[in-house]
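User: Hey, my collaborator sent me this sequence without any context and asked if I could get a structure. I don't really work with proteins. Can you help?
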Amino acid sequence: MASAQELDQFLAGVEKKAFKQAVYAVRDEAAALDVVQDAMISLAQKYGDRPAAEFPLIFTRILQNRIHDWFRRQKVRSTYETPFSALGAGMDGEEDFDPLELIEIREEGQMPSDASTALAKRQLLATLEQEISKLPHRQREAFLMRYWDELSTSETALAMGCSEGSVKTHCSRAAHTLAAALKAKGIVL
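Assistant: No problem. I've predicted the 3D structure and written it out in structure-token form, which is a compact way to encode the shape of the chain:
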């Protein structure tokens, strides 16, 4: 059984990653914050007594379910409501604020040798993030779980509720799409 401290450490360690994954999925920072917060509360309330080793897989599944729930609610709301964005652009004054800029990217001891290298890395990461956000939902979900969360194929399949073959297909298609998009922009890795 996990202690409260182990749960706190897990949640603190996963919050930035979860937020970014939710932003990729819902494409709305405020909604992404709500989704992540709801997933964290659900983990703490319903699964906080589980062993700490189970937290990553359980949390990933909860987060994905919350993202799916958000899309379902949006579909229902769009059926019955007029989108406020159609009424006029720029309803709030803080359009140029981007919470993603607050997240630091850790490079595990690798400091760029000069400013041009640092700039090139930032531009590459920005381009890659932009292209990841364009992927279809299931491809993005599988790709991020496998290569960002570093889950195994079987863990990803379990979290996504599909077969391991589907996970491999989604990851392969995502990787080919990303490679083609980067190549089209003149970036060859």
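In plain terms: The CA atoms of residues 43 and 133 lie 26 Å apart. You can pass these tokens on to your collaborator as they are.
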